[in-house]
């Protein structure tokens, strides 16, 4: 085979792959691929969207159904028809009906629809469906312009992407000059929950919310909101508690009754290639969040920092909309998202995933959304000769960091950002569609914040070091909360707040796809207006 023929075949293959990815489909490509991969090898392909063998399997896929606004009555009517059909199916398996235009026979035994969690959103249903059901639902109304669903998405798994770092972003100076401490601000933390019994959150009643606001756990179904609220204030992982401690709360050496309490910081120090020594430090001073008096709303969407469902987060964002009356009365001023999943351009356009769309909608309703950029900014590449070499990776921003209106945060050194620049692991831009991200960088290396109780001495308050853009994002959340507590006229104006923080950022003299606008500077942000 001549080289010209080889090149032609390769180009044709690439064009076919691109054509396949860009083909319109009601079943998202990642879900379709997962179903195909579950098909036993050797089964003949079906001309339909899903192979016959896969359709016969009893695997229930965790999916997010997005409804078609062109359905008679709109997306809300489409979703209600879907719910009605499922409820009839649950009452009488196998009994077909056509009420609402959706037959019970589209469902299979073992299918589940979480109607309660779905109702926190406006246009989604969170389900566990068989491949057969997925194919059947995608076909409802497809012969007309009024198909039931717009798209069926795979429910992706989410993962989790103070002390001296407050000086780095000048929160200490802003507190001294402007009394910027977060008073009157409520900030949501969508994470593994917040251990509200930690002394750090007791000083200012950090998790004691204003009337009408309630914490909520979205990782399991709860019969009532009170149970869900109590569960959200339990954190068995520690990631959410660490994130929350960066944003708000304060631990003082002296208790309110005048007695002293010890503070212990758990550290790890590498002694050699084989040994990591665990160490402790007992500082003589207290530890404060960046906006110590800010109130925190715990939205539990992860069971651990590496495990949670996208549907949990979509429901949590919808819950904030409900609490705020969809922008009519903004009582939750911001939300921190130190979590996400890697973006794959074959699934959807950058910034156009259901998560990014909901983030942008939330921002437009008056809520500041701060998202971690992700930790995939460094890895390996294969050279022409086949060798593996380490290199920085561009275009690695996670969702929801790809959302246009989110403040997407990368990481830098805790104490010396001008010297060390952007952290090697911090995800780099631009986005796949050419937008500049991240927006800002903030301290994300060896950040000290709250820890779950361990083997420390009785009476000592536990803290630990953690690194990642998960730690950088709450620095920005805390700073914005502190800013809003001083400049209240910008409450409910998150796009303007983002402009102010980007315009006042300190240039670290690194490439914009590494640092965005630069290092967040709260003092400059307050002085600029």
The CATH superfamily of the largest domain bears the name Peptidase S8/S53 domain
**CATH level 3 topology of the largest domain:** Rossmann fold
Q: For the residues shown, what is the average pLDDT?
A: 87
Number of domains: 2
Strand order of the largest sheet: 6-11-5-14-15-18-19
Q: How far is it from the N-terminal to the C-terminal residue, by CA? A: 68 Å
Number of strands: 21
Radius of gyration: 25 Å
The low-confidence runs, each spanning 5 or more residues with pLDDT under 50, are: 42-57, 94-100
Shape: globular
CATH top level of the largest domain is: Alpha Beta
Give the assembly state of these chains: single chain
CATH architecture label name of the largest domain: 3-Layer(aba) Sandwich
**Estimated structural class:** alpha/beta
Strand content: 15-25%
How is the main sheet built? 7 strands, parallel
Number of discrete helical segments:
17
Residues in helices, as a percent range: 25-40%
Write structural notes for this entry.
By secondary structure, the protein is an alpha/beta fold. The protein folds into 2 domains: 25-154, no CATH class; 165-264 and 284-527, 3-Layer(aba) Sandwich (Rossmann fold), CATH 3.40.50.200. Helices cover 30% and strands 19% of the residues. The chain has 17 helices and 21 strands. The strands form 6 sheets. A 7-stranded parallel beta sheet has the order 6-11-5-14-15-18-19, sandwiched between helices. It has a 4-stranded antiparallel beta sheet with strand order 2-3-1-4. Strands 9-8-21-20 form a 4-stranded mixed beta sheet. Helix 11 packs parallel to helix 12. The longest helix is centred in the first third of the chain and has 20 residues, at 3-22. The radius of gyration is 25 Å and the shape is globular. The termini are far apart. The relative contact order is 0.13.
